[in-house]
Amino acid sequence: MTTAGSDRRAVIRDSLGVGVATGLYGTSFGAVSVAAGLSVAQTCALSLVMFTGASQFALVGVLAAGGTPLASALTALLLGSRNTLYGLRIGPLLDFRGGRRVAAAQLLIDESTAMSLNRPDRTLARVGFVATGLSILVLWNLFTFLGAVAGEALGDPKTYGLDAAVGAAFLALLWPRLSDPVNRGVALAAAALALVLVPFTPAGLPVLAAGGVALLVGLLSKHEDPTEFPEAGG
After folding, report:
1. How far apart are CA 218 and CA 149, in angstroms?
2. Could you tell me the maximum CA-CA distance found in the chain, to the nearest angstrom?
């Protein structure tokens, strides 16, 4: 057993563990998406094409609140823009070329980025990125379908409280980042702005404005989020 082979297997094992844990959460998205009024086919298409959990939850959340498709799409785009920054960081690290670079773009999410950073060489960085991205892609879409079918079979979402599930699921995604004081301040400012705007603006716009608060703080501040890629060691 060579050291290189052992390291590769260790990275794959860790990547698959992350893939399974994240992929299972697709069940929640499938259920809340159907509860928000999307069909099973529309829900599955979102997971396959968009493939970025926070943006997907944001999109169906705005729709569930009565927002327009444009407002929901802009909200999802705002949240998904962070993936562009990931690409700037790991593009040179992975150095994929041609068609492989295009394919890698579909796998560029929080978890695959985190599992490729801080590896001792490019080979292991690529293994972590691909193994994590592919495992999540397959399992996220599989469990999205299962969650959507289950949600549709339940009938009226209000009967089971599923009409509140979108907000709860999105809060669950946000909660781990609130351990940092700066993140808590940004979250409170964004929530306050959204609450002020709710009575006066169409559904969806308060969410966009709240997202703009976080974007503005990110552009003006050099604060490093300690919850971002903890294994990368900063």
Report:
1. 38
2. 66
Tell me which of 54-58, 85-89, 107-111, 201-205 is least confident: 201-205
Exposed/middle/buried for 116, CB within 10 Å: 0-12, 13-18, 19+?
buried
Question: Chain-centre distance of CA 208, in angstroms?
Answer: 17
Model's pTM, two decimal places? 0.70
Tell the burial category of 3 from Cβ atoms under 10 Å away from its Cβ (0-12, 13-18, 19+).
Answer: exposed
Domain boundaries, the chain: 3-177
How much of the chain is helix, strand and coil, in % rounded to 5?
80, 0, 20
The angle formed by the CA atoms of residues 110, 114 and 119, to the nearest 5 degrees, is 155
Q: Which of 202, 200, 169, 207 is nearest to 73 (CA)?
A: 207
More confident residue, 187 or 177: 187
Say which residue, 193 or 234, is predicted with more confidence. 193
